[in-house]
Request: fold
Amino acid sequence: MRIKKYSSDLSPKSWQVIEKIIQVRRKSKWDLQEIVNAIFYLTKNGCVWRDIPGEFPPWITVYWYFCKWVTDGTWKNISDCLIVDFREKQGKKAQPTVAIIDSQSSKNSSTCSENVGIDGGKLIKGRKRFYIVDTLGNLLDSFVVSANCYDGTTAIKYWESQSCHNILLDNITKIYADGTFGGTFSKKMTERYSITVEIPKIPIAQKGKVTIHEKRWIVERTIAWTLNNRRCSKDYERKTEHSNTFLIIGNIRRLAKKIT
Reply:
């Protein structure tokens, strides 16, 4: 039994919810809750795998489970289940009808060496993270590409290839976005999926130099929530699927505290 506790640890009630979703066929010598706590610790505090505190299971074991759950979709499944549970407790339907999409360019690090580009508009070398959220700010879907990819064309390609695999996007009828998602994305979403893409142009509020538009502030808040996890402050991952998984884990950490 670990004596020292960390702020990133799951509460017993939160673990009871997540434990039901995780499927492990073989019996592990290590406590699965401690493995998840170790991954949450790394996500929140931003350390390298080898520097996970010794009170947790060995880092190589923790990393093995992390990669396994990336490959078999466990992290996404946990996130989706928590979103459905949270939405229903808020009096919403399980599947949302309105979504908000946005992108965020993130600087790369020395360990982030694949799929890296330069965002010419923001002058950032690294990767671009795409967030698709509901009106409560829950992360319905996300993906990571090199920073030199254009928002609209990249988003429509992803939607065409991956949206059919995400049940949370099945009932979407309207998407709020900014101007970079106009043109190709807006036109093809309407023609192929009968989804209206609305680009709010009249601000609803002004805070200093920050202009707040209808609905779009929700996805900006989700990005801010994600960046509270130091592992997400920059991109440290060699693989984009690992980079995307830490966005999902950030969403899981937030919801695990709210649904209990």
About this structure: The helical segments are 12-19, 32-45, 59-71, 74-89, 151-162, 184-193, 216-227, 240-258.
